[in-house]
User: Fold this.
Amino acid sequence: MNYVIFNHEKVYPTKIICVGRNYVEHIKELNNEIPDDIVLFIKPNSSISLDVYKPKKTFRYEGEISFIIKEGKIKGVGFGIDLTLVEEQEKAKKKGLPWEKAKAFDNSAVFSEFVPIDDISDLSMEFYINNSLKQKGDISLMIFKPEEILKKVQEYFSLEDYDIIMTGTPKGVGSFSVEDKVKGRILKGNKVLVEKEWTVLG
Assistant:
């Protein structure tokens, strides 16, 4: 079973609940419609990776503020990269089919370490490729805020300790190449809570 690091210890999420279309500018970027209700999908434990691998098929990265859940509450925050197989998703969408092949494949959910957090206000994320800022977003830009996301998720899914919620991505999605340096940051105000750099593997 795959693990992530929370508060310097290995923990084992059973699943990842992901929010789609949660930033207006990203929705426009992909020419999608703004949803009437929250869009949720699941990545399994087998999708978790602590390293960044470039997928073999056409893909895009999506940097996200991600939360660790314990006892039904948000207990930790980290940086997540949601990888999407673009052509697979487009084919599925056109035919009204599920997205799993495009979203839930092995190594499609990359995470930094998670750190404990009590106050989730004023959180933001930054994503860099080779020291060039590609994405920047904060909670104020989300259509559904973290506590509302948690409440919505719990209407449909039981959350086990250390399950992860990925809250959606701001504009600036794209792709990277093998050996690129990619870096994710989570900030609270001007303070960096989490910073992780990866070298993209093939």
